[in-house]
Fold this sequence. Notes:
It is a single chain. The chain has two domains: 109 residues, Phosphorylase Kinase, domain 1 (2-Layer Sandwich), CATH 3.30.200; 223 residues, Aminoglycoside 3'-phosphotransferase, Chain: A, domain 2 (Alpha-Beta Complex). It is globular, with a radius of gyration of 22 Å. The strands form three sheets. Strands 1-2-3-5-4 form a five-stranded antiparallel beta sheet. By secondary structure, the protein is of the alpha+beta class.
Amino acid sequence: MEGLEKVLEGCERTGLAKLRHELERQWNGSGDWRLVGHEPLLPRGNRVSRLRFARDAEVRSLIAKRLEPAMARRSELIARRWLPSIGLDGACPLLLGSVAASDGSYIWHFYEDLGHWEWGNPDPESERVRSTIALIARIHTRFADHALLGEIRMHGPDYGIHFYETNVHDAICALKAVKPQPEHRQLCARLLERLAQLHEELPVRMQVLAEFGGPETLLHGDLWTINVFYSGNGVGFQPRLIDWDRTGVGPVSYDLSTFLLRFPESRRWRVFALYERAVARVGWQLPGRKVLNALFETAELARYANRVIWPAIALAQDGADWGFPELEAIDQWFEELRPVLPPSAVEMAEPLQWAQ
């Protein structure tokens, strides 16, 4: 495969030879494939690219993704062990092969190219949305209390209350280490006050999650609509989920809050109703809107706290210029936080009280 070694410079040579052999095997024979296109896929830059190869008049393409070793291992297990264990190996792209850097610092994965059948902007009542919600519900319900959860948890994050607690704690520690100039002192003080409030709310949020969060299951972990594609020519809208490198274990509210927030507020209830009906077929009964919003808020605030950690560390340890603008953006997220599902008039008058 002429040209492949230029893209994968620094990779282990034996692994590169095995990758060439595997791709040529899957592409019906060896010989004369050459790289003719290298297209970085935004917004990920060179970390994810579409590679095009040609042989005579034939053209093939695949997706190359550069991953940290731990993420690569999770993605491999999703494709070759975890999803196949519940009969849903077609829920993700086919993993064609992989090759590691010579120093082991990263791994390239190579996936089938799903083309341009990405999510787009479908109406909540469209077949595309219904099929996607059905797939998400099947993954969640089939993995609920599954025998493999311990293995998944060993390789991936725990997105339950532990995720909330540790991110709030670590964000406070990192932010306290920042020594802001006068113009940023109010920002840091305001964020510390927000985080202290989240820490105070921990016991009640833990109780609500324990009582209403439902069974633990496998979670995608990054369930944005941009990670939904459709295979084939779109007939029947067979959804495929990509970017499984953050997969982990936790309550469905973590995935659902991420997914629902990608829709305009006026459409979220209709999308959620599709999920509610799908899981009801296996006997799941989800809590009411007030409790759901509380669960969704816990997941979203845990993600906010996680985002505080990295610019705070960069400021405290390296004096990074980008740290304060990033913290300002996160502070604005806290300010603009609203219920995921639009609350009723009664719920707006009587919000759930977190602090004890």
